[in-house]
Structures are given as structure tokens and as C-alpha cells.
Design the sequence.
């Protein structure tokens, strides 16, 4: 059985990841499944609810462990079995989010972040392709405010400047991956979908 490919879509909140994930899944049909992080299994969704609850204070380092636990669960129960069964997996986020968001919220021990990310994902640490949708911070922020998700959400409440720091860390660490693409997120949904389609077709053909 030929293994499926693991494609990750990354970007800031509101950058258009889930819109593009749905578009790509639509074009791939039943060859592919979609997952999102954190979440995707009952346990990982429970961890997601806990993490996103802005009323629960925590040390930033705690988030690294919680996201990694949700990721290990998703990897072991959904992503690895699907790839082994020949399905492609299109993921909304992976460990690069932990590197970007948790270091931007103050976790300074980057070695520890990487160790946990590697432990959670094992051989799936390196995706076949990671696409970073680079949408200007201002646009992301305006979209989040429009959908009313900046209140009560732990991460969205950290604010626009925090998002700008997250983007910087993304761009710095992205370059360590063997296969990544940066797609300008300020175009139309159609334009971006066409670019992702071209990238996915090149990988899968
Ligand atoms: P994310 O999953 O990265 O948080 P979404 O895909 O949910 O982002 O998009 C956030 C909002 O922006 C949604 O309302 C979506 O319809 C809109 N949106 C996504 N991509 C674009 C785009 N290229 N142009 C304009 N609006 C967009
Ligand atoms: P979500 O509603 O999924 O945001 P989006 O639709 O933009 O992806 O919320 C997930 C939040 O968790 C988001 O603010 C990014 C953050 N996050 C981390 O801080 N670290 C991580 O490892 C992951 C996967 C997400």
C-alpha cells in the first residue's frame, strides 16, 4: 500500500487556513481527510476547550505540554493510521504553531519546545509539504474582530502585537523545514485556492 502524503496549512488566526483546507479537500475528494489542531478526537477536542478558555490562567509553558498532548493523540489515532492506509492528510496547523505561538507568549527554551514537538509527532515531525499562508496581521485581526472571536479566547485576547510576534517566529523557523511554501494571503480566496491546488498537484503527481 502506497503511503498517503501529509500536507500542513499554517498561518495566523484568520489568515484563511480553514477556508483553503476545505477548498483543497474538496478538490482531492475521497483521497484525503482533513484534521485541525488542536482537536480532531474527543480527547484532543477536550484539551482544545481547556486551552482556549481565556478564564483559566496558566504558565505559557503549560500550553506547550497541552498542545503536544493533543497532537500526540491526533497523530496516533488519526493522522498516522490514515497515511498508512494510503489517504492524504490535509492539516490545519501542526507543531510549527507551538514554536510560533508559545515562544511568542514567552517560552524561551526553544530546545524544550522542539523536543516536545518531536516526541508528539515522531516520524511525522516533517510533513511532506507545509504551506504558510502569509496574510498581513492587520487583515487577520480585522477578520477576527468581525467574527467576534477576540473575546474570551485565550490566544485572541493576547492582541494584535502578539500576532505580529507570532508571524516573525513563524517566518524564522519555517526555513528549517525541507519542504515549505509561503503563499501570499492577501489575494482572493480563488487565487489562493488555485496556488494551493498547483502545489498539491505537484506533490501528489
Ligand atoms: P483561519 O482558519 O486561518 O482562522 P478562516 O479560513 O476561518 O481563517 O478565515 C477567516 C475569515 O476570513 C473567514 O470569514 C473567511 O471567510 C475569510 N477569508 C478567508 N480567506 C479570505 C480571503 N482570501 N479574502 C477574504 N476573506 C477571506
Ligand atoms: P483556532 O480557533 O483553531 O484558531 P484558527 O482557526 O485561527 O486556527 O484556535 C487555535 C488557537 O490556538 C489559535 O489561536 C492558535 C493557537 N495555537 C497555539 O498557540 N499553539 C499550537 O500549538 C496550536 C496548534 C494552536
Sequence:
Amino acid at each position: 500500500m502506497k503511503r498517503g502524503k501529509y500536507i500542513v496549512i499554517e498561518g495566523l488566526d484568520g489568515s484563511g487556513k480553514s477556508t483553503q483546507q476545505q477548498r483543497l479537500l474538496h478538490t482531492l475528494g475521497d483521497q484525503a481527510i482533513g484534521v485541525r489542531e488542536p482537536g480532531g478526537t474527543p480527547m484532543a477536542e477536550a484539551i482544545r476547550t481547556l486551552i482556549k478558555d481565556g478564564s483559566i490562567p496558566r504558565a505559557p509553558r503549560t500550553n506547550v505540554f497541552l498542545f503536544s498532548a493533543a497532537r500526540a493523540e491526533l497523530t496516533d489515532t488519526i493522522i498516522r493510521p490514515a497515511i498508512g492506509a494510503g489517504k492524504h492528510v490535509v492539516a490545519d496547523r501542526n507543531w510549527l504553531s507551538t514554536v510560533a505561538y508559545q515562544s511568542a507568549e514567552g517560552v524561551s527554551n526553544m530546545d524544550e519546545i522542539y523536543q516536545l514537538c518531536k516526541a508528539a509527532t515522531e516520524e511525522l515531525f516533517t510533513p511532506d509539504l507545509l504551506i504558510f499562508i502569509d496574510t498581513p496581521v492587520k487583515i487577520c485581526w480585522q477578520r477576527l474582530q468581525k467574527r467576534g472571536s477576540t473575546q474570551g479566547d485565550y490566544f485572541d485576547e493576547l492582541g494584535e502585537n502578539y500576532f505580529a510576534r507570532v508571524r516573525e517566529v513563524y517566518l524564522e523557523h519555517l526555513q528549517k523545514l525541507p519542504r515549505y511554501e509561503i503563499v501570499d494571503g492577501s489575494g482572493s480566496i480563488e487565487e489562493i485556492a488555485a496556488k494551493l491546488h498547483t502545489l498539491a498537484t505537484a506533490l501528489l503527481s
The chain has eight helices and five strands.
